[in-house]
């Protein structure tokens, strides 16, 4: 079952359960996927959909931080609920040990020796880690590994 089909099935479940909050988040996710397909003039596969959902989670986490800084706890709680609903459709996050192992494998596989080779390493890691790890943090770890 594709991820889009899973989203549509969960939308039906939320409708039957009359869970308006979850239903709204799922509809928003499906809409974002369809918009990305229209913008790219292509049908997204599961990795593309994971990319869209990851971006949505990141946006909500940033909003949550800003709401908390502004003392708007009720809006931050709403954003947190949306993040939780979206994360149900994302793959399980990688552990630190798995990330370190994948980084060392990618460095060995690409033959990277310096910071000039960082693009090669990230090119190998990005498809494998999409939606499973924060690629910004992974980039920092790759940078640290290449500087040693």
TrEMBL record:
<dbReference type="InterPro" id="IPR023168">
    <property type="entry name" value="GatB_Yqey_C_2"/>
</dbReference>
<dbReference type="Pfam" id="PF09424">
    <property type="entry name" value="YqeY"/>
</dbReference>
<protein>
    <submittedName>
        <fullName>Aspartyl-tRNA amidotransferase subunit B</fullName>
    </submittedName>
</protein>
<dbReference type="InterPro" id="IPR042184">
    <property type="entry name" value="YqeY/Aim41_N"/>
</dbReference>
<dbReference type="InterPro" id="IPR003789">
    <property type="entry name" value="Asn/Gln_tRNA_amidoTrase-B-like"/>
</dbReference>
<dbReference type="InterPro" id="IPR019004">
    <property type="entry name" value="YqeY/Aim41"/>
</dbReference>
């Amino acid at each position: 079952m594709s991820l889009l089909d899973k989203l549509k099935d969960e939308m039906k479940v939320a409708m039957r359960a009359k869970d308006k909050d979850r239903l709204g988040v799922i509809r928003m996710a499906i809409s974002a996927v369809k918009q990305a397909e229209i913008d790219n003039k292509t049908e997204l596969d599961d990795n593309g959909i994971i990319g869209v959902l990851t971006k949505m989670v990141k946006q909500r986490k940033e909003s949550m931080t800003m709401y908390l800084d502004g003392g708007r706890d009720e809006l931050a709680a709403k954003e947190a609920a949306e993040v939780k609903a979206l994360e149900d459709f994302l793959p399980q996050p990688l552990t630190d040990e798995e990330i370190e192992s994948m980084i060392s494998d990618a460095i060995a596989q690409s033959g990277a020796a310096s910071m000039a080779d960082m693009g090669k390493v990230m090119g190998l890691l990005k498809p494998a880690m999409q939606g499973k790890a924060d690629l910004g943090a992974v980039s920092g770890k790759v940078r640290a590994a290449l500087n040693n």
